[in-house]
Amino acid sequence: MTRISTSTLGFPRMGPNRELKFSLEKYWKGEISDIELLNSANEIEKSGWKLQMEASIDRITVGDHYLYDMVLTWSDNLGLCPSRFQHMDAGLKRMFAMARGVDGSEALSMKKWITSNYHYMVPEYDESTVIKPNIELYLNDIKRGIDFLGAQTATPVVLGPVSLVFFTKISHGTDESVLATLLPHYKNLLATIAEMGVAEVQIHEPALVFAEQNISHLLSIAYPAILPKQGPIINLVSFMEDIGEENYQWAISQAEIGIISLDFTRGHTMDLIHKFGFPQDKTLGVGMIDSRNVWTIQPEKVSEVSDFLKAHVVKFRIQPSGSLQYLPWDFSCEKELEGHPASSLLSFAKQKLSEIQMVAQVIAGDMLLLKSHADTWEVFYKSVASGTNQPNKRWTEQDFVRSEPFEKRNEKQGLLGSPLLPTTTIGSFPQTKEIRRLRSQYRSGKITKAVYEAGIDKQIAYAIGIQEALGLDILVHGEAERTDMVEFFAHQMTGLLFTSNGWVQSFGSRCVRPPIIWTDIQRPHPMTVREFTVAQELTEKPVKGMLTGPITILNWSFPRIDISRKEQAFQLALAIRQEVKDLETAGCRVIQVDEPALREGMPLRQHGRESYLQWAVDAFRLATGGAKSETQIHTHMCYCEFKDCMGAIDRMDTDFNSIENSRSDNATLEAFVDIGYNKGFGPGVYDIHSPVIPTVDFMESKIKGFLTCLPVNQLIVNPDCGLKTRTWPETIDSLKNMVEATAKVRAQI
Ligand code: GLN
Ligand code: ZN
């Protein structure tokens, strides 16, 4: 049997036990030095390398152990720095300042990373930006990689120039002019890497998967100008979708590109190859091991791709569909899941490495291996008494529609006793050490349920007291009982599995532990009613019931790969629908159903978009359609541009919509105005991800800016997102200013 070669495209950066998170947080508090932070990161990187070496992966990435985010590091590597940070010396301090803000300088904006729950920092290019590379650290990292793995295996990763430009907010010049400034530096960089003797370089061009017209134009300007004529093989890497006809045709016609890495788990990659062929002299990186889901590959998929490759491709290698950063580190640590019917099919980053080898061997001809893999799936199917494969008839047409249109509902809801420009928050308040301790003591059985609930109630009382004192209008209970907005709900439903250590980076040092959907979903009991009631009994003002929507739960979980996402979303929607009913019965007048992930799940290319938005919005409507007209339904969304799905947002038919706005300019607000959105609207007035306290003036002018495009009775005043990552002093000062800014505006209308 011939051996088929393998590669990876990146490994989780947080470490087996989130070591990087803890080091970063210590570093930000000034408790450890630059060197100590880097040492800690290097150790993690090394343990990832070891695992990949042990799994006999042929090409292992180096230079990609980003401390905060790939795009941020690359803008920093190239010295792409907006004027407000230019007084700082290049280096870690400046890079983190760009990520988190410093002394009144707003951080770069943050956006969701290509259909995922990872976030990237948006680089800025303004009139004072001078590209000045700063690649010493990067070259050092590559050297370390070569020393450890050898020059044949160590594969440097570079974020491609077209993607860097594509992700950058350019306020001075055009895509072409900024690209032109970057190219000589890319050329030098690639030449320097070539001198280091590596066999291959991966140029990651995530922008390839976007449908925007000018990508292939930028590609054809950039690549002839930067690729060395000799030296390492160039591997052009894309992920998360297919790259579309235009980009595909461009890629296969580039003589200097030796390897093209494509995603075989999403989009229509095989159709492209089928239609345009794949050149015999190039190697295809077959990204068929799903880097974004913990379920192991289905045997049918292996056979399908294997047959396809044999028919159409001469040279290929097997690899994950993207970086394994979207997966937790190692499933074998999950002792509590041992013996679970799903456990033999679950595969985290470490297990994916074996999966790569398994698939490579099957494709090389080991049919017994495929048979035993198929048997494992069969055993699972036999052990799940799941109805999920059956068409579902648990809803009717009417269940998707509120009983009256918005205008009627609005009259019945009135202003709930609030003044004009009602102030509110998005849900969570600071998750203090005390709260975390309380939850962990309860989880480990150290305290009784009664003691735990009394502790939570104290937190709720505190949050209500603060909000009353600040003079906010629509209150929240503060979410002290929630670890995160998905895990909390998933825990109370059946059909989902939880890990104890399955952390995945969301942004910076923040990690989430996505649940795993493994069978039918149900909600056996109310999930939020107790805490709502405790809060509402403490105040005359309306307290918002706070729920997470079905699409967000789905997108931030690992769904089954053998059942449609629509089916799974509708099951979740029915569970949320029951909760809405129970909250109403408990006297709740305002219910917020958060859908921050709605937009991120939207396919990048036109095919698939319409049907996604159809079922995704239907799922939301199924969750909220049963609410009485008197109940004000809110939703909240963040870190996305919504311009291209405004119709869908309107179709969600919420009474209020609060949306992240302050870190991504006013484009979002304008998009709402453009479609004549007539329902309640709360564009965020300040960024909650930065520790910087927004001033009264700043927010007053934001609100006034909003009022230039929206009528006053449509506007609600709130921060960009929940406040759980902030401290109480920061929260109080910020909200005090927000309420004051609102009062000032009210006085002027
Ligand atoms: N209600 C949630 C909170 O405040 C919303 C979080 C989010 O949108 N990501 O934490
Ligand atoms: Zn949010």
Helix and strand topology:
Elements lengths: L18 H10 L5 H21 L5 E3 L7 H8 L14 H9 L9 E3 L6 E3 L2 E2 L10 H14 L4 E6 L1 H7 L1 E2 L4 H21 L4 E5 L10 H12 L6 E5 L6 H9 L4 E7 L5 H8 L6 E7 L9 H14 L2 E6 L28 H15 L3 H17 L22 H8 L19 H11 L5 H22 L16 H5 L2 E4 L6 E4 L2 E3 L3 E7 L6 H8 L7 E5 L1 H6 L9 H21 L4 E5 L11 H19 L7 E6 L8 H6 L4 E4 L7 H8 L5 E4 L12 H14 L18 H21 L1
Parallel strand pairs: 1-5, 4-6, 5-7, 7-8, 8-9, 9-10, 10-11, 16-17, 17-18, 18-19, 19-20
Antiparallel strand pairs: 2-3, 12-15, 13-14
Verbal overview:
This protein is α/β, with parallel strands linked by helices and 749 residues long. It has 25 helices and 20 strands. The strands form six sheets. It has a seven-stranded parallel sheet. The longest helix is centred in the middle third of the chain and has 22 residues, at 449-470. The chain is globular. The N and C termini lie far apart (79 Å). Bound molecules: glutamine and zinc ion. Glutamine is lined by residues 426-428, 479, 485, 546, 594, 596, 636, 638, 721-722, 724. Pfam families: Meth_synt_1, Meth_synt_2. This is 5-methyltetrahydropteroyltriglutamate/homocysteine S-methyltransferase. One of its GO terms (biological process) is methionine biosynthetic process. Residues 421-743 form the Cobalamin-independent methionine synthase MetE C-terminal/archaeal domain.
